[in-house]
Amino acid sequence: MTELRVIGADVSRIDAQEKTTGRARYTTDATAPGMLHAKVLRSTRGHALIHAVDVSEARAVPGVHAVITGADLAEVPMPVYGYFIKDQPILATDRVRYEGDQIAAVAAETEEAAQEALRLIRVEYEDLPTAPDIDAALAEDAPELFPEAPMGIVPPYGKGASGALRPRRNVCYEFRYTTGDASAFDGCAHVFEDEFRFSRMQHVHLEPFVSLCHWRDGDEVEIITSCQNPFPLRKEIARIFGLSEARITVKVPYVGGGFGSKNNCKTEPIALILSKHTGRPVRLCLTFEECFQTNTQHAAILKIKTGVDVDGRFVARRARIALDAGAYSDATPLVTEKAGYRIPGPYRFAHIDSVCSGVLTNTAPAGPFRGFGGTQAAWAAESQTDMIARRLGIDPYDMRMTNLLTLGQPFVPGESGVDSDLREGLDIVADGVGYHLPRAPGRGVGLAVGFKDGGGVNKPAQARVKVSTNGDIHLACGTVEIGQGVRGALSSVVAEIMGAPLGRVTYLPLDTRLTPFDQGTNASSGISVMGQAVEKAARKVRDEVLAFAAHMLDASVEVLDLEDWTIRHGNEVHPLAPMVMKYYGGTGFEFTGDGFHKAANDHNAPLEAQCVFWEIGWAGAEVSVDEGTGLVKVHKLVVSGDAGRAIHKLVCRGQDEGAALMGLGQALFERMIYDGTRLVNGEALMYRVPLAEDLPEVFDAITQEQGHGPGPFGAKGMGEGAMLPVAPAIANAIHDAVGVRLTELPITPERVLAALAARDAGC
Amino acid sequence: MTKISTDGRIVLTCNVNGAPVEAELPTARVLADFLRDDLGLQGTKVSCGRGVCGACTVTLDGVPRAACQAFAFEAEGADVRTIEGLADADGTLHALQTAFQARSAFQCGFCTSGMLMLLSAKLAETPRPDRAQVVHWVSANICRCTGYALIVEAVEEAARTLAAQEAAE
Lengths: 763, 169
Prior knowledge:
The complex is a heterodimer of chains A (about 775) and B (about 170).
Chain A: H1 16-21, E1 36-42, E2 48-54, H2 56-59, E3 64-69, E4 80-81, E5 88-89, E6 95-96, E7 102-108, H3 111-119, E8 122-127, H4 134-138, E9 161-165, E10 171-179, E11 190-198, E12 210-216, E13 220-225, H5 230-241, E14 248-252, H6 268-278, E15 282-285, H7 288-292, E16 300-308, E17 314-326, H8 332-342, E18 351-360, H9 374-391, H10 396-403, H11 422-433, E19 443-454, E20 461-468, E21 473-477, H12 486-498, E22 505-507, E23 510-511, H13 526-553, E24 560-563, E25 566-569, E26 572-575, H14 576-584, E27 590-597, E28 613-625, E29 632-642, H15 649-668, E30 674-675, E31 678-679, E32 698-704, H16 726-738, H17 749-760
Parallel strand pairs in A: 1-15, 13-14, 17-18, 21-22, 29-32
Antiparallel strand pairs in A: 1-7, 2-6, 2-8, 3-7, 4-5, 9-10, 10-18, 11-16, 12-13, 12-15, 14-23, 16-17, 19-28, 20-21, 20-27, 24-25, 25-26, 28-29, 30-31
Chain B: E1 9-16, E2 19-26, H1 31-38, E3 57-60, E4 63-66, E5 79-81, H2 95-102, H3 112-125, H4 131-138, H5 149-168
Parallel strand pairs in B: 1-5
Antiparallel strand pairs in B: 1-2, 3-4, 3-5
């Protein structure tokens, strides 16, 4: 390969100047003349019928322009939303299903006036029995959250996979995957069954859910929103309100973090209805506390049965997984699919029988969260890998080395081959954490490998690259800058291909009227999927420019090269701008290239298309346990991801470090605590997120560049992988240190003490 | 000096980013809203609204404050500094800004203004911090994206730069 100039260069991020001087603008900063502020009245009951909502006093508050309730939804063609299943009402109509469910909304001159109006709304509830968690919702006498049949679809699946809507009471979706024959268990030398529990976090994106919506005369709709999938949002808004997608504009400026939560409808439908009622632009900005009541990670119960042969080789796995979906389906069908599909981890089994159910409960709706079911699966699977190794007297490192998939080996029949050398990665973290060295007194070391299919399923992406007369490069694509550095990464790909300095490329503002279609900034698809579309667009433009120059210079394309908007022809250098104006006229021209990418549909692949790339996270942890208090201290945490090719090394490192620290929080303390249906720690003081003080003494994120990725220059997606292995690596290290196995997250001192007491009692 | 209001409004006189400001406001005006909405200084971000996350950190007479938890009247007579006033008037960046850029010590950027204001105040007070001090400072604020390590490195780099500048002067 020719030497790369831009890819991998040690330069500041392209958003560095804006973000370090306070000039970067987010949705929360957007204002408009005549703008009103909205506030939402939320349910104080976990499950109740609503008999009446009296808003008469609220309407009389000075400054209030509109108050809407479920009754106002009569004018909305389809007032519910969701991904595969449309079951979440914009406002409650006959009932509420969780504390925080939306009942009424107010638009007023100020947030204070809107807040005052909320206080004057009277709701008449009739409490219903509640199902606050998975066990309660699956109990025989559980109250049914949705008496009516679900409105939804099951997507097409390929070989071995299937899905079902509402197979049982309170199960919104069930995913199944089977390969090989169940008789495989019969030939196993050992079969182990274990159960794991996974607690639920909130994303804690610092920019709240916020939008500024304007419903103009003639049903023209403009939405500025903190959203990571503007085009699917546009489609959903069009469906809800019966509008043409061509009359809806969604604009997304910088987004202040999302971690999955900013997919699909949040504040937009309510703000739009209020705007329609008032004729004014309406801003709806949720509080930090309301964000906790809006979207969360999935708590889970995972039961795994694994059969191995006499040499400790994996043979068969049966998994039964229940995810806590909360009160509405949201992205749960997709998350069940991923948790169910990823439960084998990076190992080959002759037989897999996986069933994953999304269970509706009277708690906040769970949705997409970094790791997307993979974190739950990795917690159980990589804990069990260690448990099995120890039961068989095999070193857990050797157990993994024996069983890991090899480079190029399909994950399951019909799938794409694994595009990282998994053993190479395991050695990097094992060496990094000192796995093979004698343990310091009181210390334990654990390893884990997280594994997920990356790049989304069957996901298309489109991009457009334009070059103006004087060589300024415009990149238009729908990937949202949410912190991951995607504007810089994709601009770097264009600059590299166009032979231009990075500063020549401008990443155009995202506006669904002007930007080519994209399905969303999720599934680590920015560089792996959109990157391929951008690469194709840039190559088309480059080819077009070279063909043009060849014509103008009466030379063959092969002898020409493009260097910062000049044509190099042997020792001659020809600036392009005069050539362009000579041919196209003095007012200039724009060369334009469109790029498109999508994995081919493939019915032999379980998810209908082969996985785009495999996102791997390796982790090694060294811990000690205070046997008096049960406190776990993580002394070393070494994680590694394979970027394939690092477009920007520090950005890659930052992605992995951020993911790893989120994983550390998940492992040790971070969780939403419910008392029945009431969230008791849903605010900043009570909900503990990792701080700098939580950093282990040694904290390393090692970016591998194995070069096998499908993206530009061999790149793979980043950012989720390093979260997956952290909790199991820490649990495995605790076992190594003190001989107890923690199977429930988070690993609190109370749980550790209980496990130590059980150990000492000989249980 | 704080003036007692009898009608729920107050005249505030202070200095914001080096420029004198006089404004009539409701007594209950929150400092963050005053800065963002009245003065248009939107670089200051509000997130948790409870003085926990630190995204809204500004300095009053060099002392970091959570602007979401301060009333505007608390700035009476004070030198208020926001992210817009961290660089020199001629645009020369503060060493922390340069270091944050060089180390990619930010991702989404929503915590960055508050981090920079907090850390600029701490560095002014303690120009030669050890790593434990830096970690302690950074722990006052929440960054959900970076995992903090690059922020800590950036602060150390800025401290070295400032020390070198001082030595050169």
